[in-house]
Amino acid sequence: MSTLPASDRPWYAGVTGYQWLVLLIACLGWIFDAFEGQVFVVSMHECMPALLPAGTTHDRVDFYNNLAMAAFLVGGAVGGIGFGILSDRIGRVRSMMLTILVYSGFTCLSAFSQNWWHMVLLRGLVAIGVGGEWAVASAMVAEVFPARARSVSLGIFHASSILGVWAAVAVGVWIVGNPYFGPADYRWRWAFGIGLLPALLTFWIYASLHEPERWVQARALAARDRSQPTGRLLDLFAPELLRPTLVGLALATVGLATFWGVYVRGQSLIRELAENAQLGPLAAQLGPEARGQALHALSDQVKTGLKHTEMAALLLISGGGAFGLIGFAPISNRVGRRGAFLFYCLGGVVSAVLVFKVLPPGPPWLLWSALPTFGFFTTGMHAGYAVYFPELFPTRLRGTGGGFCFNGGRLLAAPILVLNALMRGWGVSVSDSGTILGMLFLLGAVVLLFAPETRGRELPA
Question: pTM of the full predicted structure?
């Protein structure tokens, strides 16, 4: 046995094989979760035009893409809150299995969409499982790992989502951008069809995992004491929990609105600049309808090149995001949870202004070199939700609280994306809308004034 003091031992010392297994399965569920969310992002410039009438203008296509992303946020809110409550009542294991079946099944059905509203509706249904999986898995990892290893294990859990993004990028390049799989307006269907594969993970979950002892004890206490029920949403607004609930909800709203409105727009900005290069000097003078017609007339070879450029940008952004997600836990262990969130909020607003307003007029290499840093700051604070939210709520409400905060944030972020879609229809450029939404990071910095600090504390019983 090690004689080192607990504070000097590495965080992973003493972690059991079963605890590693829980983390691995939680990560796989979250990786697939991220893939199901991003598969639309890597194919939206192909799938939505194919589902709309021929000749639909570029700005209208962008409007329906934003509508689909808003539906995803609303569905995620419903699923995250609903499955969070369910996991507190029926357990983490069964709830996790259900979330994976939901998001994998509806992603596969998306491949058969015939109209824009089919895709919008199915994105909302996919998100029910996507939102639920995070709430359930983060609660389970928090309850299984010892306090010393909790923040790092949860940071690893959330950071693993970047592998799902990279899997989506690979599908974008090798399937959506590959003529072998058919015409450009058809290949995206293969990408969504792959979404059924994560359902196989449920067999491993069923065979390998059991309920955390903390949850078993909380469930037994609820059976004996009716004043301590599990999974009751209204309890989050009791006086002792109101402040952490509102802080968590506000932080999630900022992070999710900026993810879909800023992070994703970084990829769209590079796509737009590449399109302008193909359309020539008159690109800036083309109206929405003329621009759409000009893009539609490009050869399949040129369209494939645009797709590869877009995916290269997403790969750089998400690569930086991976370091940002991994970095949250050690940063928060050193400067506290509040300090880490502040670091990412301030970095987020600065990087958004640089990428969308300052750098684009300059040399392209300078903008491309800034993309990893942009991804680092606009993504990294999301790992904080997995670290911070489980520390705010007692066991009987941990899934409910985390699910409500993270996914209630999706619900509040959805109108912001609808507004973003309207701004694009009003002629606001990608660079301007990305800059405007980047200012939301400043709101996150203000919220931190009211946030409780939880570094070094045991999980609430």
Answer: 0.75
